[in-house]
Write a structure and sequence with these properties.
This protein has 112 residues and is an all-beta fold. It contains no helices and eleven strands. The termini are far apart.
Length: 112
């Protein structure tokens, strides 16, 4: 089992940027894919982005493609989600997922 801690969320205005981090502890995650999900109020959790174990493959939900960038640093056991050109509809709690483990989430609020 791995422990995941997300950070970097906050309150920003539309058009601004945030960088989320997901720090893993308990074991190395260098051979696992990392995924980001989000859950807005009264909505189901949705997948946002994923990255392969070596960072060579990334994929994104259509709603964030071209604005978000997922990356990782295996030496730091950490994943990242760079979020640019944020929109009010990006407001949600963002979660990191590695295999069957989840973090506690970090709140992102985008005001118009």
């Amino acid at each position: 089992q791995v422990q995941l801690v997300e950070s970097g969320g906050g309150l920003v205005q539309a058009g601004e940027s945030l960088r989320l981090s997901c720090v893993a502890s308990g074991r190395t995650v260098s051979t696992d894919a990392i995924r980001w999900f989000r859950q807005a109020p009264d909505k189901e959790r949705e997948w946002v982005a994923g990255i392969s174990w070596n960072g060579e493959r990334t994929n994104y939900a259509e709603s964030v493609k071209g604005r978000f960038a997922i990356s990782r640093d295996n030496a730091k056991n950490t994943g990242y989600l760079q979020m640019n050109s944020l929109k009010p509809e990006d407001t949600a709690v963002y979660y990191c997922n590695i295999v069957g483990d989840w973090g506690q989430g970090t709140q992102v609020t985008v005001s118009s």
